[in-house]
Amino acid sequence: MEAISFFKNLADETRLKILLHIHQEHELCVCELTQALDLSQPKISRHIAQLRREKLLVDRREGKWVFYSLSKYLPTWQQHTLELCFESNSELLVESSSRLNQMGNRPQRQQQCCN
Question: Contact at 8 Å (CB) between 32 and 113?
Answer without folding.
Answer: yes
